Amino acid sequence: MAEQRYQAVLAVISDGLSISQVASKVGVSRQTLHSWLARYEAEGLEGLVDRSHRPARCPHQMPAEVEAALLELRRWRPYWGPRRLVFELAKRGVQPVPSESGAYRALVRAAMIDPTRRDRRSRKWKRWERAAAMELWQMDVVGGFPLADGTSAKALTGIDDHSRMCVCARLMARERTRAVCDALRAALGVSDVLCSCGS
C-alpha cells in the first residue's frame, strides 16, 4: 500500500499530473491524495506507511492503578464477583470507582473470570419430546381476549408434544372443568366415557 501511495505522490510531484487525474487513476479522493502529499513532505517515505487507527487515548478507560487494585482484591478474595469488588473498592476510597461491567471486562482480560460461565442463557438445554405422536398433549389456557360484546374469553390450546400439531383450540367464557373436559372430549373424538360398571 505504501508503494501505491509513493507512486501517486511521484506522479503529482515528478510527472506534473494534476491531483484530480492521479486521484481518479489510483481510485482515491482528492482529499486523500492531498493528505498523502502532506505526509510525504513532512515525514518522507515513512509518512506513507500504514498507520494504526487506534485512538491515542481513551478517556473512559479504567486507570491502571484502579485496575491493579481491582485485580489484587480479586486475588485476595477469588469468590467475589464484579459487583462486590466494585462495592469494596468504593468502600476503600479508590477513585474513580469503576462500573460493574468495566470490572467484569478487566477480570476477563486478566483471565480471572470465564466469560462462558456468566450467561446462564447460553447453557446447553436438553430438548426432550415424546417418541411418538399422540403420547402427550401440552395444554394451556390463556386469556382474556376482549370480544365485540364487551365480554372476554379464554383460549384453551393443546399441541401434540412430538409432532407439534395443534390438537385443540377453543374459546371459553370461563376456565371451568366442564368446558375443558368438553374441549378435550371433542379433540379426542370420544363420544362416551367407557366404564365397566362394576363387572
UniProtKB/TrEMBL annotation:
Coiled coil: none
One annotated GO molecular function: nucleic acid binding
Taxonomic superkingdom: Bacteria
Family matches, as InterPro entries: Homeodomain-like_sf, RNaseH-like_sf, RNaseH_sf, WH-like_DNA-bd_sf
Protein name: Transposase
Species annotation: Mycolicibacterium moriokaense
